[in-house]
Amino acid sequence: MTKASNSTSEFLEQLRPPVPRSAGLTESERYLAKLADRSFLDLWSYPNPYRDQKGPGITTGKEICDLLVVCHPHIIIFSEKTIKWPDKPLDIAWARWFRKAVWESVQQLRGAERWICNHPSRVFLDETCATPFPLEFPKSDVAQIHRVVVARGAADARIEQLKAGSGSLGIKPEVIGPAHFDTSNTAFAPFCIGDMDPEQNFVHVLDESSLEIILTELDTVKDFTDYLTRKEVFVRSRNLKKAEAEEDILAYYATHTDQSGEHDFVPTDGKTWEESGPIEIKAGLYNEYSNDPRYIAKKAADEESYAWDKIIQVFTRHVLGGTSLSLLGFDFDLQNSEKGLRYLALESRLSRRVLGSALLGALEKGKDTDRFFRLMFSAADPDVAETAYFALTVKYLDFMKESGGYNDYRAKRASLAALYGRKTLMDRSNLKRVVGIVVEPPGSDGGSEDLVLIEQQEWTNELRAEVETDCKAIGILQGSHQEHRYHAQEFPDDDFLQVRIGDEIITLLDPPFGEDPMSSMFAEPHTSNKNRKERRAEKARARKLRKK
Description:
The chain has 548 residues and is α/β, with parallel strands linked by helices. 38% of the residues lie in helices and 17% in strands. It has 16 helices and 18 strands. The strands form five sheets. Strands 16-15-14-13-18-17 form a six-stranded mixed β-sheet, sandwiched between helices. Strands 1-4-5-7-10 form a five-stranded mixed β-sheet. It is globular and about 80 Å long.
């Protein structure tokens, strides 16, 4: 895959009609679509998909949902409604608003999920059902489906009730099903969301206030779906009494980690839930969290991560726009292009921070040499990683213009990238795949980018000898290579050592022992009862062990 370049005239026959994505049918749907494009990226986000349920007198399809995100193995289904707050007493107003804004959306989500699972080949992008959904849906045995209602219209009434806050709805797990709108039910609680139906798959409810916060803080497919998955377990665990707002639950999640160092809803101070008992998450926790200096440092450190997003978007804009071009002799295939890009898109924000920094460093180094290669891992241990990435820069030199031209240069560059990928897979049997980003260095006269996906294979002695011979002939990947292990803290503080990335192999290390550097309002990790001095000593010992 490559974008248009100075040899575009020779590829004009490859240009295709753009993928006709809706931008949303209403103002609120367009806003949701804009947030989704920013968080999940455009190749995986599709507003207003349709199903072909036509019949006598029916000439158009029926809308399935308001937004559909598909990034294997995840399917995220959104239903959005804006309902005016009724001018009635509070209990009656809430019950009426909830039925229209939330309850009806839940039913739409259930129907959308059934259709997608039962008829994945009958999902379309347009109401005439002429353009099939462009991505393959994950099979039912691996699909992870997430259901999200976006209910607008209650924020002002909520602020009036609390005389403070953002207007977000609260979370109260004891409110179940019809108790949300049955004013005679003892669990009835205006402005509180519980569980729509404990016997069915969980449905998340966001509102106009919490939607932007959640999709801004969790602006990758992985970060968002990890939160949804852990939140639904938490709500149904009976370990939560109440939270005043969705963003306060998010703040609790963001400042707590489990034994593996992953964010989760675990009790504070290393206790078990049996020891601590159910909790009530205090109002204003998100404001406290988002004003903490370490949160601000995190946001600053995340800036480099968006280089990863931008390189993905370089490719996706051409895939969707019909302007991505293949090498001569190869046919464009959207499914194959998406598969390679998907692995980049499934990285978390923290992983993208390190990968983005490594990518920028590789591009910078590529300015000073004819060819530069950098292999990158986002796993804590490259020996167990399933996916590796590499950046390869190759200059288009003057002699190449006279000995085959740009097309020949690109073909040889692609062959070189494939050889780097094959050698990497051959040397690291734990890998299932390697994805390469192949470009000309910044400032070059040309302008093409290729993405290569190479998957693991069986390595016979003959194949190994062939790869070794080719690598030796070109002079690549011979002997040992420098490896730099990069220790990344999600929330940088005064203990964080900024290390210059300048070696060929970059590895992201999660904080050792699941340590979370946050303190005070930021709970210690679930497994640690050590004080700050002890944790520093532990980190020093870990660094010494890694050096050995």
